[in-house]
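Data availability (excerpt). The following record was deposited with the supplementary files.
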Amino acid sequence: MSITSAPRVLSPAELRSVFEQHKQDELVGIEVETAALCPRTGKAVPYEGENGIGAYLAHLASAPGATAVHDYGTLVGVQLPDGGHVSLEHGGAVEYSSPPEPCVAEAMGTSRAALERLAAAANRFGFALVPGAQYPCTAFEDVQWMPHSRTAIMREHFESLGSEGRWGPRIMSMILSTQVSFDYTSPTDLADKLRVLSAAATPAAALFVNAPLEAGKPSGLLSRRMRFWRHADPARTRIIPVTLREDFTIDLFIDWALGLPMIHRGMPDGSRKRVPPVPFRTLMTEGFDDGTRPGLPDWRDHLSQIFPDVRLRDTLELRAVDGLPYPALAAVPAFWTGLTYHPPARAAAWELLRGISHQQHLAALDDIARRGMDASLAGRPVRALAAELLHLSEAGLCARVDAGLERPETLAFLEPLKDVVRTGETFAQRTLAQWHQDPDGFPEKYVAAHRIPGTA
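Predicted structure:
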């Protein structure tokens, strides 16, 4: 797409305008990243070939009402007839994004129907779609890189950071997640939600840890995915420090984001170009290499190149937690909706977690990746904090059910998380137990147990 340069420096009002929304409804959107795996070996499927991901996408795009999405001439996604979207991650993960729905039950109903149709199509090409938190059996050296035009730019960016970016390519290619997007109705509402969710993301992550393997063997961690984020450009990942402040406002976020370098920019021919590694505010005054200055499209692009646990764009995107097995998938949107869309639950969560520093959050994230529910946050047991957040989420969902905003069956979506709190056994520990029972037969059994069932 063509990027129009701003003839002058973007004003504070223009930068802020991106976040000044006046939505009446608070909708729920779900994104599910699935690994495309060989059912026998558990290894990643390549893009090329008559049974590759490229052929699979072409099949999806041929359906009535579907629209192919290309990246500089290469098929990398499909807009589905129901408003959902299929996109391709750098390492071959097939991501489904639902249209926004008014409640969790409707969002999950739409998502499950679409995912099972996508899985049925994958069956025709001989591979399985498996949600979770990481490719379980593929080594980094065997990653099947997809033909995205920005893949080389992003790998170059991470490599330029030295040790601080060394796991960035693994983030690009090997991890999976289930993410939820929420609306905000004003800058004040946005600031309140973002502050609470940033604080809650750390202890909540312990409920979901589900990435204990690397290249088909135990990694020594309960979430290799969480540990990868430790060295994947720390300046723009995990917890944004200013969001933990008592006086947090959207202007503080804007000032923080202006201090980060932009990574790449869209060109008129549809390609992406690497941007000099200087703060965005410097680009606003000094311009790009071609003399043009950033416009609002560049500002929006820049926001998309920030990857924290709670990502701020036109929506709030919850990215912190590991993806879950397919039967437990609904626990992710149910948990976050109960906390996000019920103001009393948000207020109670902030009271529970206020005053914890950025460094304490980072230390806890590393501890959770290693010990799950046995970790601590600022000297407090994570299991107790996660249990209280789950209680607050359930209270929020109950209030929404009473108000007619959610269906009663949504409350049952939290049961898998209640089981984790009750037993202290995480999804990762269950996977490790399965691996130790039969290491040689694990890949085939894992795919069989975790793949999305395909329905035509």
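Summary of structural features: The radius of gyration is 21 Å.
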